Each structure stands twice: as C-alpha cells, then as structure tokens.
C-alpha cells in the first residue's frame, strides 16, 4: 500500500504537501520566485440557453494544508 493511502489522503493532496514542503525549504530568494506557483487559477462561465455567456477568472491560493 502506498504511504499516502496509508495516511488517508489522496494522491493530489500528497503532491500538494510535497510541493509546499519543497517551496518552504528554499532559501528566501528562490522562495520569493516560487511563491506564484502556490496559486491556482479558476475559470468559470455563466451558462444561459446552452451557451457560455460570461467568463471570469479567479486566482485562489491553496490553503489545504499548512506545513
């Protein structure tokens, strides 16, 4: 059994934890450069009569786990 399954988390959660741990271990200069990688973009559209009428974008910072 995989370690992440034994811990009761999904593979996506596992990779997010690993990525955050790596970014936190960087020195200050590299950590600043990697900070934008800690954000996810979200696009959505309002659908009316079977067509997307309005598109918008949101940028959300991942706050699932704090290491």
TrEMBL record:
GO terms for biological process: proton motive force-driven mitochondrial ATP synthesis. InterPro entries: ATP_synth_F1_esu_mt, ATP_synth_F1_esu_sf_mt. Transmembrane segments: none annotated. One of its GO terms (cellular component) is mitochondrial inner membrane. GO terms for molecular function: proton-transporting ATP synthase activity, rotational mechanism. It holds the Pfam family ATP-synt_Eps. Belongs to the eukaryotic ATPase epsilon family. This is ATP synthase F1 subcomplex epsilon subunit ATP15.
């Amino acid at each position: 059994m995989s370690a992440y399954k034994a811990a009761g988390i999904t593979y996506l959660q596992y990779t997010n934890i690993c990525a955050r741990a790596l970014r936190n271990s960087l020195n200050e200069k590299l950590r600043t450069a990697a900070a934008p990688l800690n954000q996810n973009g979200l696009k959505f559209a309002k659908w009316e009569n079977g067509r997307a009428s309005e598109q918008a974008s949101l940028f959300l910072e991942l706050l699932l786990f704090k290491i």
